[in-house]
Predict the structure.
Amino acid sequence: MKTLVLYATRTGLTYNIAQKIAGELDAEIAQISDGKDYSGFFGYIRAAIEGLKKSPRPNVPLETKEKLDAYERIILTGPIWAENWCSINRSFLKEHGKEISCPVYFVFTHMSKITYDKCASDADKYLNAPHKGFLTVSTHIKTDADQQALDSALCTFIKTLSPES
């Protein structure tokens, strides 16, 4: 199944998760970005401000091997900023959501212990059809148990996407 995994990341944690998903599914992976620097303390503050904005800024052009409508499945990954899906992901959906005709899955990464179901339903308004599924995972890893929980959640999510499921 021709799959595209898209990711936005501030620290690289979401990239690592997107890379694992893409590797397991033999999928293409591509970054979405608005061209801004979100590294360090000031990047963290910028991300929080961007997370609160209702109208995110446009992204830089997306570079993929195919047009979006050529994929059979798209997995869109990105962090939660200020209790909202990051502005980069929201901007991508605003710009390209109606071009997507295949099933879409979301992966939300965050530093808390809560889920972000509302972010998934908010993102649906930019798509032709509701998302097919989503995963919300905490990247706040302090212990081996935290890492095991993350790995287990990813493994379960990937199994639901595998053709033999």
Summary: The radius of gyration is 15 Å. The CA atoms of residues 144 and 150 lie 10 Å apart. The helical segments are 13-25, 40-52, 87-96, 117-124, 144-161. Residues 144-161 form the longest helix (18 residues).
